[in-house]
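Reopening this ticket.

The earlier resolution said the output was attached, but the attachment link was broken on my side. Pasting everything inline this time so it's all in one place.
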Amino acid sequence: MKKVILAATTLVLLIFSCSPNDSSNAQINIERRDSVSIFDFVDSISVVQLETTKDVLLSRTSGIVLHKNRLYIMSGEKQVIYCFDSKGRFLFKMNNQGRGPQEFTYSGHFNVDPFQDQLMVLVPWGILINYDLDGNFISKIQLPPDLRAYNEVYAIDKDNLLFFTWGYDFYAYYYSKSTATLSKGYVPTTFDLSRSFPPFRKSYYYKDSLYFNNVGLKNEILNMSDTACRSVYSWDFGEKNYTLKQMQDLVEYDLSFRGKTPTKESQLQRFKERHENPKFPAYYSYGGFETDKFRATSLVSGWPGKFTNVIKEKQKRKSYVFFETKEGLNLSFSTTWGNSVIIQYNIEDLQAFKKVLKPEDLKIVESHNPEKDNPLYIIYHFK
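Inline output:
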């Protein structure tokens, strides 16, 4: 049975090919460590200290969206969405957990529909609730029962949404709000492959189009706003590119845990093994980003996992690879919106921020108390 599963995985990996992509791609050595300044990429940096009151205390956050000078942040533990302005002033919270007609029992993902200026709260077992940007209820949609789980939602245009899921023969499914129908699947995979290489947190908007980093043998960036899922670019990391054998070995390894009750220790060991064993892929992509000037991706490698950032300057066809900037700043492209990259402040980075922040912003950072205050965010505005 295992051979059948791996053969199916091999077949999908070998036959899947999109339309030709950018032929100007050059190999990038991800073991390089380039000396770069943060100001090689950004033209400004914003500091946002979220207002802290006894009624507004954020626990562990599970999602953040920047839209129209507002930050929408979900507390995964409390299942509450908080809204702050661009200065961090608290505006309102959406404490809508429940079984009422305007409420949700549990949300694993929320997003902004930039075409309708609406908040979308997704319940994984097939419910989508829409609110306006001030948190007022608009509609509650029961999604088709074709999928067991709806894991991520993105707006494609005013009518069409795109859902990502796993455990099927495809990663992506389109949904038309006007006809209330779900499309056939797009971006082929297999049940087992999707469990080892899930599609989540690998999508981003650029110029009103949604792009998906289809990590695998080709490392293709697909334009998901085009139902042909046109390949527009691919990352070529030379000898560090995934091989078919590495992907098969990882799928087989993950299958060995199927049906077993996980413990904290076994999960830690599994995660460590995936990152340390040379028979598995050397890195895992996490996030993506694009502006008129740059393309970027973050790779997690080694144990404990560390971000390697890869940025390509489009017109110059020049690439940059680094763990941190020469000022000592660490980046990742897991949370982006428009030209902005959002990073939660870590007090260990204080010395680095002393080198790049304006005096008034540095004062905010230095006064931040991680034990008592709500999170502080650094927003990098890319060129």
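Reporter confirms the inline version is readable. The two ends are 51 Å apart (CA to CA). Residues 2-15 form the longest helix (14 residues).
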